[in-house]
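User: Can you help me understand a structure? I only have the sequence.
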Amino acid sequence: SCYKRALISSAATSALRLHQRLPRFQFSREFMAQLFLEDSCHYLIFSVMFINSYPVTMILIPVVLFAILHTVSFTKKLLDVRGMLAMSLVRSARQAICKVELYQQGLLRFIACTEIMLMPAIILMTSSGQAGIVIPFVYYRFLSLRYSSRRNPYCRYNTTICFVVN
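Assistant: Let's start by predicting it. Here is the structure, written out as tokens:
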């Protein structure tokens, strides 16, 4: 199904990005600590966790939005290397890239909110038999890793706001 393909491609992308960011594999505590600090590892866990679960559109929101952000980043680098500004297609692409970059923080906050709001949905899925009994515990660990993220602090920011408001 398209749901599984999206999660498999997200897992492959996360694994590739993780491979690019980490040094050569070592079976040591330091390497494992560095591995679990990387956002790519978090989303690899996220994707693998939901590949065999019941398809829920809300699970795909972070995957799709991060795919858009990564595509925009790659396209911008590609256009900078090519350097052709005269073509109208290139100008339109640059305008679209600028628009996405303008709303990037809002998108990251929305992704963080979606990740937080998925927890009650996962508990409901587990209670109705649509997800495994282990998924809520693994997802809780995923959320705690996202909360301690260095690259994307928006999960921490949104959680803090939720506690302050309530």
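Now, to help you interpret it: The helical segments are 2-21, 29-37, 39-50, 57-82, 88-102, 104-127, 135-147, 154-165. The two ends are 39 Å apart (CA to CA). Let me know which part you'd like to focus on.
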